[in-house]
Amino acid sequence: MAPAVMLDVVPDGVSPVVAMALVRSGRVALAALELARLRPGESVLVTAAAGGVGRLAVQLAKALGAGHVIGTVSDPAKAEFVHGQGAYQVVLSSQPDWPVEVDVVVEGVGGEVLERAVKCVKPFGRLVTLSAAPAQLASHDLLTGPRTVTGLSMGQIVRNRPDLIRTWTARLWELLAAGQLRPAIAAELSLEEAPKAYQLLADRANLGKVALVP
Which DSSP letter does residue 9 get? Predict the structure, then answer.
């Protein structure tokens, strides 16, 4: 059962599918940028920028005044999609060195990607990681910045700061109404088509949310 604070009334004129695509990942993306204390004009790197949280993090960074937004993707075919979300530059995650240096990183992959992303943070920059995938961060990489790395757990926020959930959800509805957020829907499928939905996700072929509609 979902905690009451995670429930909200969908505004008039917003379809259930759009609401799902916005709130489910948008809360995480906005939480990451809030914890990173993004300031207008700062540069932002978003890993897995074609994913559910990543693409909304790109849009939100632009809406919150970021000056230069970069996304990483695992497949060159996803680059155009990420550009369409508002990214100025797209970098292949397989590149040995990412030619970027940014103020803020929203990191959703973990492991080796997190270890590489830390090196992209400017002195006094901030990285927020969403992934529990194990990684090893060298203290040298943090001390030479100095850089800050923060872990994000929505469960901890729900338990300890439910007021933030309400604030962030209201902000998402505002930005949607203002046309500054555009949730991407890759497919709307019936419950009977659940195996097809699963295959789309397993193949990583979806550019946007895959929704099962009763």
Answer: P
Q: Which residues contact 57 (CB under 8 A, 6 or more apart)?
A: 29, 32, 33, 44, 46, 49, 106, 108
Check: CB of residue 53 under 8 Å from CB of residue 25. yes
The three-state (H, E, C) secondary structure of 160-180, written as one string: HCHHHHHHHHHHHHHHHHCCC
105 neighbors 85 (Cβ within 8 angstroms): no
| Per-residue pLDDT tens over the stretch 111-141 | 888 888 998 999 999 999 997 777 777 777 7
Distances (CA, A) of 196 to 188, 193, 206: 11, 5, 11
As given in the structure block, the two tokens for residue 135 are: 């990684």
Closest by CA position to 2, among listed 23, 18, 21: 23
Cβ atoms of 53 and 81 within 8 Å: the answer is no
Q: Which one-letter amino acid corresponds to residue 144?
A: T
First CA to last CA distance, the chain: 19
Max Cα–Cα distance, the chain, nearest Å = 54
Six-digit token string for 73: 């993707």
Amino acid type, 32: A
Asked if residues 11 and 177 have their Cβ atoms less than 8 Å apart, the reply is yes
Residue whose C-alpha is closest to residue 108's, from 79, 72, 70, 78: 72
At residue 162, what is the residue type?
P
The predicted pLDDT at position 10 comes to: 85
Residue 140, amino acid? H
| pLDDT value for 1 | 62
